[in-house]
Write a structure and sequence with these properties.
By secondary structure, the protein is α/β, with parallel strands linked by helices. It is built from 15 helices and eleven strands. The strands form two sheets. An eight-stranded parallel beta barrel has the order 1-2-3-4-5-6-8-9, surrounded by six helices. Strand 8, helix 8 and strand 9 form a beta-alpha-beta unit. Helix 2 packs parallel to helix 3 and helix 2 packs parallel to helix 15. The longest helix has 22 residues. It is globular. The two termini are about 20 Å apart.
């Protein structure tokens, strides 16, 4: 496997808490890193570059204090840059990430090439979201350190490929870091992803339903009550294939089975703070995303408790694989 030993030694579990739009904030990221997994967040969750600077400073200071208190190095926090050409903040967000010396960055919704050189020059590892083998090949050619494979089960922006086929196809030409995104319902799934050839797993949906997430209480409770059949794949809200919760669509007064396609991707509109606060902006406030792992959400624990629970499941699965 290709994950650096220096990073492995800092982690309780080979896991990244996925960057989730309007859900991942400083409390969630800090709690994840303190618990021994990588905490990530979309820089677009900040309303401005100034707020992003504040978030990065706060999180970095907190994790440095935690490392001093515990006497051990913690996993790094991980900003997520949305690199689509319609995002007007890419350059400014990149500058903020560089100012705060991020160790690892995830790029999504486009080619990582425009941000790759400055990040690599600064010693930052770059992981790129990819949803097809062709996208993976392009990201590798651009020079990324790792690939996040968006499989059919991922919440939010998702892929269409079966994870078993996707990982093995990518491993035919790539020996760098591979992260599986989609369907990570528990520690057994994390262990299975490793057995398949992944270095890390991406878990998002279960962390929406934690005390530290920015999600509304109604969102968290809907996740607890929902099951796999409640997840709907649609382009209606983002212009991308996205897994959403049917009950939230119906509660917003829409018919889940009769949704118009949104059309072109427009990140500028998506991240505009004023747009989010419009009274009719239901897709920001009341229509919620979830991945196939929603079936594994049974309560609303703290991040620390969820990581510990997942790590215990992972340890059991690993022992079982080794015949112990």
């Amino acid at each position: 496997m290709s994950l650096p030993d220096t990073l492995k030694s800092r982690m309780r579990l080979p896991l990244i808490v996925a960057p989730m739009f309007l859900v991942s904030g400083p409390a969630l990221v800090k709690a994840a890193c303190r618990a021994g997994v990588i905490g990530s967040f979309p820089t677009a969750n900040c309303r401005s570059v100034e707020e992003l600077d504040g978030w990065l400073a706060d999180m970095s200071d907190d994790l440095e204090r935690a490392a001093q208190e515990t006497g051990r190095a913690l996993p790094p926090l991980c900003p997520n840059l949305i690199v689509h050409r319609s995002n007007p903040r890419v350059r400014d967000d990149l500058a903020a990430v560089l100012r705060h010396k991020a160790e690892i960055v995830i790029t999504s919704v486009g080619s990582p090439e425009p941000v790759l050189k400055p990040l690599k020059d600064a010693g930052c590892q770059v992981l790129a979201d990819v949803a097809s083998v062709r996208h993976a090949e392009k990201a590798v050619a651009a020079g990324v350190d790792g690939l996040v494979l968006l499989t059919a089960g991922a919440g939010g922006q998702t892929g269409w490929v079966n994870p078993f086929a996707f990982v093995r196809a990518v491993r035919k030409f790539w020996d760098g870091i591979v992260v599986m995104a989609g369907g990570m319902a528990d520690g057994h799934a994390v262990a299975a992803a490793q057995a398949l050839g992944c270095d890390l797993a991406y878990m998002g949906t279960k962390f929406i339903a934690t005390r530290e997430s920015l999600a509304k209480d109604g969102y968290k409770q809907m996740l607890v009550k929902s099951r796999l059949d409640d997840v709907l794949l649609t382009r209606a809200f983002t212009g991308l294939e996205t897994n959403m919760l049917r009950p939230s669509i119906a509660a917003a007064g829409l018919d889940p089975d009769d949704l118009p396609a949104r059309g072109a991707i427009d990140i500028a509109k998506d991240i505009n703070a004023a747009e989010r606060e419009r009274p009719d902006a239901k897709r920001w406030k009341d229509i919620w995303s979830a991945g196939h792992s929603v079936s594994g959400v049974s309560d609303v624990p703290s991040v620390a408790d969820l990581v510990e629970r997942t790590a215990a499941e992972y340890d059991v699965a690993r022992r079982s694989m080794q015949g112990v």
